[in-house]
Write a structure and sequence with these properties.
single chain, 457 residues, alpha+beta, UDP-n-acetylglucosamine1-carboxyvinyl-transferase, Chain, 2 domains, 4-stranded mixed β-sheet, 27 strands, binds uridine-diphosphate-N-acetylglucosamine, binds phosphoenolpyruvate
Length: 457
């Protein structure tokens, strides 16, 4: 059903928000459960999202058992038993909905010697090729590698349909997905593998911790060189996913853009260092008030009447995250002064620019650089309007912009936002935002949708 969010802007937020487990970590770890040929994985802190549900379906299509785990613990818990997986060809339709579906390739090839995996979906923010995933796997199947793209599927066969042999591979770009794929595959390859120029994102480290808990031997995750000593067999374990730094960052920007003060937990402050620096540069106060709690204040009485513009260049971790670029652009439209954002990770991640302009933002786009002309002191930068999300973070940015705008903003294409934020508007409403979800009925009318998902006619 087509859904939209109606946001009445200019409300201040207050209180505390619970940060869910990391989407990108959970997705990679769910793929990693395929490495476990015996025992079950009890995974805590899995955010309940369209993407994690789709990933669970991908695993089921291979023969894994994935159930909600009533065992308690933090957040949502899943029990995954991949010991009976027999198929090496996941459901192509589900694969086409998410990027992370392709992460199953590594574990399948390592465990079964072959896999036939449809090309992935995910946000349309660039060409997003998978060449580095494939080359990495080929380096592990070094004496008789065989991979080809056929009928929309990647078919990868290790030597004689058997397992992989350890090898070295240098990534020409520190791709997160290619690093995770190599790590999973090498965990079950014979001998030692070395990956250089590896991605250093916290989600890569979390996946390594998970695989090690399952019996793998991975050293160096979080640096640019990862050394993996292959093991014959990995087994189930208990694991808790790290907090979602991008969800946390989005709420930090929500506090900034609405000139509010909110607390967030659990978070790992180090994962949010670049954003904290930028918000501080703008004039906000970012305080660590407990080991896993941050407080962000942008209240005028505390930090002054106006926030100041700042510049951003997105980079692989520990640089500024591309997944917070759009949200920061929304914020910059409400700051005083001019700023620019250079998107260096994805070549087509500026769809939100045209939509922000519909709300009154003044932005000039030149290729992958956006020049933002901030507001005049004392004025309200944005006004309500009708906009459409084209991708996940761009959608979140439009919601944030709507919260800062005068009047009512309609954000359509909410399914993109639901892919990556657990109970997004419910959490914002609990902080004081005025947001209502509507769905299009069979007769074409918009009707209110309650948090339990029911339409109110
Ligand atoms: C599910 C998941 O974890 N998604 C995250 C992951 O995406 P994902 O793993 O897709 O991101 P990558 O790090 O692989 O992509 C970065 C750049 O490398 C390029 N590239 C990648 C692979 C490849 O084989 N060839 C190639 O050229 C991409 O086109 C892109 O320009 O990391 C991104 C960068 O932090 C985040 O924005 C995404 O939220
Ligand atoms: C780009 C993102 O996700 P995906 O890689 O799953 O498309 C994201 O989370 O911002």
């Amino acid at each position: 059903m087509d859904q939209r969010l109606l946001i009445s802007g200019s409300r201040q937020l207050t209180g505390h928000v619970f940060i869910s487990g990391s989407k990108n970590s959970a997705l990679a770890i769910l793929a990693g459960t395929l490495c476990c040929s015996s025992g079950s994985v009890a995974l805590r802190g899995v955010p309940d999202l369209l993407d994690t549900r789709t990933m669970a379906d991908v695993l089921r299509s291979l023969g894994a058992r994935v159930e909600k785990d009533g065992g308690g613990g933090e957040g949502n818990a899943l029990l995954v038993d991949a010991s009976n997986v027999g198929s090496v060809e996941p459901c192509a339709e589900r694969m086409g909905r998410i990027r992370a579906g392709f992460f199953v390739l590594g574990p399948l090839v390592a465990r079964f010697g072959k896999a036939e995996v449809a090309l992935p979906g995910g946000c349309r923010i660039g060409a997003r090729p998978v060449d580095l995933y494939i080359k990495g796997l080929e380096a592990l199947a070094n004496w008789n590698a065989h991979s080809k793209l056929w009928d929309g599927k990647f078919c990868v066969h290790a030597a004689n349909g058997k397992g992989l042999i350890g090898g070295s591979f240098h990534l020409s770009y520190p791709s997160v997905g290619a690093t995770e794929t190599f790590m999973m595959a090498a965990s079950m390859a014979e001998g030692v593998s070395v990956l250089t120029n590896a991605a250093m994102e916290p989600e890569v480290v979390d996946l390594a911790h998970f695989l090690n808990a399952c019996g793998a031997c991975i050293e160096g995750a979080g640096t640019n060189t990862i050394v993996i000593t292959g093991r014959k067999k990995l087994y189930g374990a208990e694991f808790t996913v790290i907090p979602d730094r991008i969800e946390a960052g989005t709420f930090m920007v929500a506090a900034a853009i609405t000139r509010s003060c909110i607390a967030l937990s659990p978070v790992i402050p180090l994962h949010l260092a670049r954003l904290s620096e930028k918000l501080t540069e703008a004039g906000c106060q970012v305080l660590q008030i407990a080991s896993r709690t941050l407080e962000v204040s942008s209240v005028p009485e505390v930090v002054g009447d106006e926030l100041q513009a700042f510049n951003i260049k997105t980079l692989p971790y520990p640089g500024f995250p591309t997944d917070l670029q759009a949200q920061c652009m929304a914020l910059l439209t409400t700051c005083v002064g001019s700023s620019y954002i250079e998107e260096s990770v994805f070549e087509n991640r500026m769809h939100h620019v045209e939509e922000l302009k519909k709300l009154g933002a003044q932005i000039n786009l030149e290729g992958n650089s956006a020049f933002i002309h901030g507001k005049k002191p004392g004025s309200i930068a944005l006004h309500g309007g009708r906009v459409r999300a084209a991708d996940l973070r761009g959608g979140a940015a439009l919601v944030l912009a709507g919260m800062a705008a005068s009047g009512v903003t309609q954000v359509e294409g909410v399914a993109h936002v639901d892919r990556g934020y657990e109970r997004f508007e419910e959490k914002l409403v609990s902080l004081g935002a005025d947001i209502r979800r509507e769905g299009k009925t069979a007769s074409g009318r918009w009707a209110h949708i309650r948090p339990d998902g029911h339409l109110v006619h």
